Structure formats: C-alpha cells, structure tokens
Amino acid sequence: MGELRAYAALAGAQARSAATYRWSFVTEMLANMGGTVFDALAVLVLFRATPTVGGFSLREAVLIVGLSSAGFALADFSVGNVDRLKTYVRAGTLDAVLVRPLAALPQLLLMDIPLRKALRVVLGFTLLGGAVVINDVAWTPARVLLVVLAPIAAAVFFSSIFVSSASLAFWWVDSGEIGSAFTYGGRDFTAYPITVFGDTFRGLFAYALGFAFVAYQPALALLGRTDPLGLPPWSGFLSPLVAGVAAVLAAVVWRAGIRHYRSTGS
Amino acid sequence: MIVMRDLRKDFTVRVKAGRLRRHKRTVSAVGGITLGIERGEMVGYIGPNGAGKSTTLKMLTGVLTPSSGEVSVCGLAPVPQRTRLALRIGVVFGQRSQLWWDLPLRESFALLRHVYRVPAAEHEARLRRCRALLDLDEFLDTPVRQLSLGQRMRGELTAALLHGPEVLFLDEPTIGLDVVSKQAVRSFLAELGAGGDVTLVLTTHDLADIERLCRRLVVIDHGRVVHDGTIEALHARYGSRRSLVADLVDPLPEGFALPGAAITATEADRHRVTFALEGATAGAAVAGLVAAVGVRDLSLLEPDIEDVVARLYATPDPSDAP
After folding, report:
1. Would you tell me which of A101, A167, A194, A232 could form a disulfide with B86, CB atoms 3.0–4.6 Å apart?
2. pLDDT tens across B170-184, in order?
3. What's the average model confidence in pLDDT over B35-42?
4. What is the dihedral of CA A37, A187, A87, B81, to 10 degrees?
C-alpha cells in the first residue's frame, strides 16, 4: 500500500516537472498524434491499390491494425520509455534509482510519463472499436472476453518486447537502435495480415517470436475465419497465454540485466 | 554493521586489437577486500582514482553485484535484499543527484517522504534539524537545477538523511565544493557522527575531510586494502613528510643544508626552495633558515594524500609478496 502511494507520488512529481516545459509537451503530443494517423492511413492507401491483401478484405485488415495499434499504443504509453535505459546505463544514472527502496523498473518508467503518447492510446482504441463495429462479429461469450483481453495481451506482449530489447543495454551499452527492430518493427509486422510475408521471415517473427498472436490470430478468432496458414481456430484465444510467457521471459532478462549492470567510474 | 569478506569485482573489457577485432580482458576493480565496520564508526575510504573506492561503495549499497566474496550491510545482503536495505541506509553520490532536477528542493523532500514511507512527524523533525544545521531555508523553494553545487550538496545530504538511515554512505561529498561549503558539509557530518548511532562511510580525495571526521582511515589501491588504521599511524608507518617552501631574498647559497630537512626542489634561480621535514620540527627548520638567509615568504605544506598513497604503493607490504 505504502509502495503504491510512493509510485503515485513519483508520477505526480514527474507531471509537475513536465509542466515546467509546457510548449515542448504540446508539440510532442501533436507529433505523436500525427504518427498514429499515418500508420492507419498507410493501410488505407494499400487497399486503394488492391481489394484484398494476403486474402483479407479492408474491413478485416482494419481489425488487425486496430488490435495492433491499440496494443502497441498502450504498451508504448506505459512502458515505451524504458528504451531510455541505454542513456541511464551509459551515464550511470541508474545508480540513483537502485539506492531507493522501490523496484527499479517502475521507477524508471515513472521518470518520464509520456502523457504526449496518451492520445495515441485513445486513437488506437477508437480504431479497434470502429473495426469491431464494421465487421459484424458473431458474438459468443468467449469472443466478448477475447475482444477485451486481446488488446491487453497485445500491450503486455509489446511491453515485454520493449523491456527485453531495452535490457540489451546492460550488456551492450551502444546497442543503439537495434531494439527498435523488434519494437517498432514488431508493430509494423503485426499491422498486416501475416499471410503477406515470406515464409522464413514469417516463421521467425510470427511463430518463433510470437508476433502472430498479437493481432492476426485473435482477429481470426473474432471473425470466425479459418487460418489460411493452418493453425487451429482456437489459437487466437492463446494470445493472453503467449503474452504471459513473453512477460515472464522479459522479467528474467531484466533481472539478469540488473545483475550485470556495471555503473560508471565514479 | 558492515562485513566484507574477500569481496571482489571484476569487469570484462574489450580492448581494440586491429580494425574490427576486440580482445576480451578481465580487469579487477576490487581484488579481495576483507573489512568489518562497527555501528557508530566513522570510516574514511581513500585511494587514488580507479582504486576501487566507488566500486566498493556500490557493492555495499546494492548497485553492483559482487563477482565473488561475501558482503552484508545491516545484516542484509545488498543485491538480493536491495529494497529492504535501501530503507536503512542513506547514500550521497557526489556526482549523481538523488533530487528531482526540475522541482524545488522542498518538493523533492516531500516526495522522498513517500518513497521511504516515513511518518509525517518524523519527517518534519528531521527536516527541521537539517534546515537549521545546513541553512537550507534561503533556497528551499528554488528548483534543483538552479542551485549552486554547494547548495545542491546540502540538499543531497538532507535527502539522504530524512528516513533516518543507520548507515550513511558518502561518495566524494566535498568534490568540487568551495571552502565554505566544504566546511559546512564537514561540520554537519561531524555533528551527525557525534551522536554515535549513525555509521558513516565516506570516500574522498581530500585528506582534510578525513582529519576532521574519521578516526579510522582505510586506504585502498588497485582494489586492495593497503592501510587500515588512524591517520597518525599512516604517516608514522610510511614516513610522510610535511614540506616547507621558502621564497628567498637572494639565491640559496651552494652547499646550504638544514639539519633534519632535505632539499627536494629549487626553482626560480634558487630563489625558491622546498625542504622536506625529516625529523626537524617546522619551528626549528624556519629558525635555522631565517638565521642563515633572507626569507621573503614561507609556507608549510601538509603531506598530500595522493602523495602518501603513491608512496604507500611504492613500499610493498612484505606479507603481500608472492
């Protein structure tokens, strides 16, 4: 209980600090909003050229984009700034975090609450809501549960990717933008029906890393479509499980990383 | 209170060898320290840059995981029990801020009360004491980024003490401070230590910090303890010498000698001469010099800690020989 109040106090402090730089906040928020709109526009533009992509209609594709961007926006909002870890590791700022009586990861996340990204979450969920409406889904209790859980599972999954790719910095200080290949690359991958990708690439990203379960499989389960790639119909309901496994793995990587932290000279 | 047994920390570094190839090399930052510190002790930790002082402190505070050996602080293992330990220790890193950069000092303190879950009354009492002793009032409402280094350091000290820690770790608390701020920090720490219930461990490059504060001095170099005892014992053991610098009216005559003092340098065409005092008291040396030559100015230099440590390392401990 006391710890929760401590985190809340940290969050409040962060908001007050951000308020001292009001204009940069407004411009960043606008830039961020633009980003989300363009992501959705890219898909629409694609369908101007062709009526179906990878065997999916525009409507169905919008559901996939909706799940992907709602999940990603939520993850990016709550955990995305963990990618600043490399700066903290390089500068040794993490020391100050580690001598406080709170867990390191939440403290890091609260060092910068990206309110500017909040609008993306709203947009992402609006898109998802719209997609659910235009796709007349044959509702069953299981599907109702899934439409609630899937974006959360997607957010947990992306958060795990954010945390594990940021943890690279503990071993490799100049990891640079390699982590982005999995975070932003993963978002772009999940925004399309995975049938459009080549076998090897799809095998790696969709199944080995699990990105198929972020948007594609749950969308199939909601639509009641059979998977052209052959996974059983219930595989869409596995997405919370896949997200849970990813979260456990991310926690292991994070812990190992903290133990490996080297700080700096002084 | 603090126990270290054969504590080690190795770092792997990659060394450039050719355009793309890198060789891995293991560097030992702390090479087997065994040390015990009792409740209420004030221990000064010194050594040249890179000796392993900060690394040791970071292992004691749970920031770094030791490569091997045992360590316990307040009966806790620093890394596995990091958050529990954090409630019982205070940490001031001279070159890292614990405060919120954009917020007034007052707000940083209020936040720390929540972070450390301190009852309001206790918090108030401790803050009041720090405000009085460290003169915080004039800048309590200034954002931290606008504070001078001396003001910020006083803020850091307060921040580290508001939860009533049993052990206070200070990594170079006086680094970069002006003389007045150094004095303020030292007298505050002296007052704190006089109470006898706070254990104080500080690293420094400034011997005056130690002389003022610490009865016990631990010197480390190349990751090993090379001295553990009082300052007097250190000087006696390694024969560190004060030096007397004199500016003369006329050049020093050739063949001049002072009993109990050796000439270590002459500058400015023998108008300035430095003697190392070996047995002679400062008074006797000055008297001898003034009697023989015209003296314009005199200064007496305390032995430099870097110098002491350098000499220390040049004199290998026989028990350490392979």
Report:
1. A101
2. 988 888 888 888 888
3. 91
4. 130
Domain count, chain A: 1
Angle at A40 between CA A37 and CA A41, to 5 degrees: 80
Which distant-in-sequence residues (6+ apart) come within 8 Å of B280 by Cβ?
B258, B259, B260, B261, B288
- Summarised one tens digit per residue, pLDDT across range B88-108 is 999 998 777 888 888 899 999
Q: Give chain B positions within 8 Å (CB) of A259.
A: 65, 79
The gap from C-alpha B153 to its chain's centroid, in whole angstroms, comes to 15
Q: Is B262 helix (H, G, I), strand (E, B) or coil?
A: strand
Backbone angles phi, psi at B4, to 5 degrees: -125, 130
A238 lies in some domain:
yes
Q: How many CA atoms lie within 13 A of A251 on its CB side?
A: 9
pTM: 0.80
Its ipTM equals 0.78
Contact B164, B86 (CB under 8 A): no
Q: Which residues of A fall below an 8 Å CB-CB distance to B?
A: 2-3, 5-6, 8-10, 13, 16-17, 20-21, 92-96, 98-103, 259-263, 265-266
Instruction: Name the residue in chain B with its Cα closest to that of A261.
Output: B64
Please list, residue by residue across A50-63, b when 16 or more beta carbons sit within 10 angstroms of its beta carbon and e when fewer do. eeebbebebebbbb
pLDDT in tens, B185-199: 888 899 888 888 899
Determine the structural domain holding residue A95 and report its residue range: 2-260
Chain B contact set for A17 (CB, 8 A): 100-103
The candidate with the shortest Cα–Cα distance to B57, out of B47, B134, B317, B226, is B47
* Residue B91 dihedral angles phi and psi, to the nearest 5°: -130, 130
Residue B298's φ and ψ, nearest 5 degrees, are -140, 145
